[in-house]
Amino acid sequence: MHPAIEQIHGGLVVSCQAYPGEPLRHPETMAQMAMAAVEGGAVGIRCQGLADIQAIKGQVEVPVIGIWKDGHEGVFITPTLRHARCCAAAGADIVAIDATRRPRPDGLSYAETVRALHDEGVVVMADCGSFADVEQAVEAGTDIISTTLSGYTGEREKTDGPDFELLGQMIESFPDTPVLCEGRIHTPDHLAQVMAMGAWSAVVGTAITHPTTITRWFADKLA
């Protein structure tokens, strides 16, 4: 098993992302956010965009999971082999890619993409939206499988919290593949529950690193 996968076992990965037009949208700011998360106990960082990957990798010693979002619909999380290669070249220890069964912009299948990346020594994480996606990812030999896209592809209902049902299916069906829980882990209790279920690790983003959303949660209680 790759050392980066071993290093995140049993711990919390924090997603540090801000989007165009948001006040925190700057690689240096995301690097500072990542450093603060590591000081708080994060064993890994997930981040978006080549500049952010480079900036964060230069400031933290924990594994970095890199993605490149390109577009807003369909397959847009590291959508092509080129995007994935660029993430790896920017310094990502693990590259997360859309692992759904939807058409990929470059015409390659998911399996062809993983095979090419493995040939180049890239560790691949599958962002899945359904159990069928998970099966495809495992068959392709993906290094890590994740619940990231559950509730966002139309195949599964968007739950208020983590998709515990899908997580449980993944852990039970594929005990030899590291399973990460990502998506709507909004409280420490959520985190404790997914880890108690047997998740290899868990990714928390919004609840830690997106102050606009967190503020809105509080402000809505005053409405």
From TrEMBL:
Question: Does the record carry Calcium as a key word?
Answer: no
Q: Which reaction does it catalyse?
A: an N-acyl-D-glucosamine 6-phosphate = an N-acyl-D-mannosamine 6-phosphate
Which Pfam families does the record associate with it?
A: NanE
User: What EC number(s) has UniProt assigned to this enzyme?
Assistant: 5.1.3.9
Name the enzyme's class: isomerase
The pathway that the record names for this protein is:
Amino-sugar metabolism; N-acetylneuraminate degradation; D-fructose 6-phosphate from N-acetylneuraminate: step 3/5
* Gene Ontology terms: cellular component: cytosol
Q: List GO BP terms, alphabetically.
A: carbohydrate metabolic process; N-acetylmannosamine catabolic process; N-acetylneuraminate catabolic process
Record-level Gene Ontology MF annotations: N-acylglucosamine-6-phosphate 2-epimerase activity
Q: Which UniProt keywords apply?
A: Carbohydrate metabolism, Isomerase
PANTHER family according to UniProt? N-ACETYLMANNOSAMINE-6-PHOSPHATE 2-EPIMERASE-RELATED
What does this gene product do? Converts N-acetylmannosamine-6-phosphate (ManNAc-6-P) to N-acetylglucosamine-6-phosphate (GlcNAc-6-P).
Assigned protein family: Belongs to the NanE family.
Recorded protein name is: Putative N-acetylmannosamine-6-phosphate 2-epimerase
